Amino acid sequence: MTTPAFGTYVIDIRDGRVGRVVGREGPRLWLRPVGGGPEWACAPEVTRCATAAERLRAETGYVNARSRGERA
């Protein structure tokens, strides 16, 4: 598998989270969740490109949580 480009939305297949690739440090990718929040690191081997539907689901979840006051 090739390493995802910066700015690409990927799925961390370990837990299903959607994140945008924001950095690379050694063998690890740094991902930021949709809507912001703490970044997390993972190996490129445990990621795959997010589909449009998966990205939309993550964005909708963030907007809904924000409307309920659960996220800033």
N- and C-termini, Cα separation:
35 Å
What count of helical segments does DSSP give? 1
What fraction, in percent, of the residue positions are helical?
10-25%
The gyration radius over C-alpha positions equals 12 Å
Q: Return residue spans where pLDDT drops below 50 for at least 5 consecutive residues.
A: none
Mean pLDDT figure: 94
Alpha-beta content class: alpha+beta
- Strands, count: 5
What shape does the CA trace take?
Answer: globular
Q: Element order, helices and strands?
A: EEEEEH
**Main pleated-sheet profile:** 5 strands, antiparallel
Structure notes:
This protein has 72 residues and is of the alpha+beta class. It has one domain (8-68). The chain has 1 helix and 5 strands; from the N terminus they run βββββα. Strands 4-3-2-1-5 form a 5-stranded antiparallel beta sheet. The termini are far apart. The model has no long low-confidence stretch (mean pLDDT 94).
What labels would you give this structure?
72 residues; 35% strand; five-stranded antiparallel beta sheet; 5 strands; globular; alpha+beta
